[in-house]
Amino acid sequence: QVQLVESGGGLVQPGGSLRLSCAVSGNIFSIAAMGWYRQAPGKQRELVASITSGGSTNYVDFVKGRFTISRDNAKNTVYLQMNSLKPEDTAVYYCNAEIPTITGGINYWGKGTLVTVSS
Description:
This protein is mostly beta strands.
């Protein structure tokens, strides 16, 4: 029943900006942490940024200073503001949510949204 829906991907020129959104719905009471991952063809999926319910953030070195992750707990939504985009940022971006249960945490994934950076 838990679903994650990403939006905001598209085609943008180098140096441009995009804002990705991920809304979580379903029978949930809280979300411990949320994150954005990306995967390019022939590459393994990698963590881009993550944020805890308390607001602590982590970023992969390559995007530090360019990307900003944030969340709206009331809306169960996480955002990724991407500035100064580069062609190497081209990938499918996936949203992840860690939802706690009485027996442990469960990770849920969205279907992904494609970001293409090209002139």
